[in-house]
Amino acid sequence: MAEKLREGLLLGMGNPLLDISATVEQHFLEKYDLKANNAILADEKHKPLYDELIELYNADFIAGGSVQNTLRVTQWFLEKSKIATYMGCVGKDKYSKILEERAVTNGLNVRYQYTDQEPTGTCAVLITGKERSLCANLAAANCFSTSHIEIPENKKLIENAEYIYISGFFLTVNPEVIQIVAKHACENNKIFIMNLSAPFISELFTKPLGDAFPYVDILFGNETEADIFAKAHDFKTTDRKEIALKISHMEKVNKKRNRIVVITQGSGPVILVKDNEVIEFPVTKIPEENVIDTNGAGDAFVGGFLAQLIQGKDIEICIKCGIWAATQIIQTSGCTYNGKPDFKL
Predict the structure, then answer these.
(1) ∠ CA(44), CA(49), CA(53), 5° rounding?
(2) How many Å apart are CA 96 and CA 151, to the nearest integer?
(3) CA separation (Å) from 189 to 50, 93, 175?
(4) Residue 12: helix, strand or coil by DSSP?
């Protein structure tokens, strides 16, 4: 089926980041006021963190950024280059060269915007045992401007895409671009897909999230993100199946299809709401000793899901492929993979 897919079918927009990944002690998290299994944006007190990781903890450099990770995994399944296009802003430095090289090697059609105002964004990935804490310094990623999508070649790529995926993280960068792309998707009956991305998005970026939400055809989130979203919207329930159902019923502009909601719960079952029906999918249990790094599991899940979705597969198959992809990625360091995927339907 993949050989029939055309270039540019899937478009993703997000924050390209170079992950600086290292295993640290609990006191290092406490020093920088960070929590395990959480994601935040860096502020002034976090600035020394990145150099400290490199100097003291023998950190690894991994091409990252949530959407870029997801699209890399999607391309891994498709085994045909440039089905996915990726846009985001980077600096004019050695880190952006590393990012682009890795992304292109993984089959992405990369359409970075380059800025000389800021260096390429970085994300500290602090691993404690099987858990990870993310602290992102967006830097150049914050500079993504609306003018980038007005360049004729980029405008054509947006028009050519049938599936558009944006992370909640991108709401902190350029809500105007999200509105333009979301409205384009709605007017042309394309599938607009979004990820809640982190608890702070629902807490601190309620307006841009609220503006984008009516256009969302498929929504992803993990258990913590779903809980915080429900609290922010006063759902008056902590039952995640009920939360997913309520999210599916929220205002939606394109009435031609119902909203699909997917909530992952770590080692717990994946919750799917489709056409008012709630279905749970058990996840594959991985022996504790085989789990190396949970960073990237959520990105990989969406990558596996999208790989099947754009091939026209049933949502149930998309979920199962997402689970399979996530189980592979947690057995490696960072959002990385080896060999060819052997996912079986």
Answers:
(1) 170
(2) 21
(3) 43, 39, 21
(4) strand
93, 299, 314, 342: the active-site residue: 299
Q: CB under 8 Å to 152, separation ≥6 — which residues?
A: none
Asked about 299 being catalytic, the answer comes back as: yes
What is the C-alpha separation between 13 and 178, in angstroms, rounded? 9
Buried b (16+ CB within 10 A) or exposed e, 62-75: bbbbbbbbbbbbbb
Tell the burial category of 25 from Cβ atoms under 10 Å away from its Cβ (0-12, 13-18, 19+). exposed
How far apart are the C-alpha atoms of 142 and 300, rounded to whole Å? 24
CA distance 50 to 7: 37
User: Which tens digits make up the pLDDT trace of 116-153?
Assistant: 999 999 999 898 887 888 898 999 999 999 999 999 99
Asked whether the beta carbons of 211 and 177 are under 8 A apart, the reply is no
Q: Are 306 and 163 in contact (CB under 8 A)?
A: yes
Give the SS3 label for residue 223: helix
Give the CA angle between residues 198, 204, 206 to the nearest 5°: 95
Instruction: Dig out the tokens for 326 from the structure.
Output: 């996530």
What is the separation of C-alpha 136 from the centre of its chain, rounded to a whole number of angstroms? 14
- Enter the pTM of the model: 0.90
Tell me the pLDDT tens digit for each residue of 188-235: 999 999 999 999 999 999 999 999 999 999 999 999 999 999 999 999
Q: Which two tokens stand for residue 173?
A: 């960068």
Q: Would you tell me how many other CB atoms lie within 10 Å of the CB of residue 262?
A: 25
Task: Output b/e per residue, 163-201; b: 16+ Cβ within 10 A.
Answer: bbbbbbbbbbbbbebbeebbebbbeeebbbbbbbbbbbb
Q: Are strands 163-167 and 10-13 parallel, antiparallel or unpaired?
A: parallel
What separation in angstroms does the CA of 221 have from each of 26, 93, 94, 199? 26, 33, 33, 9
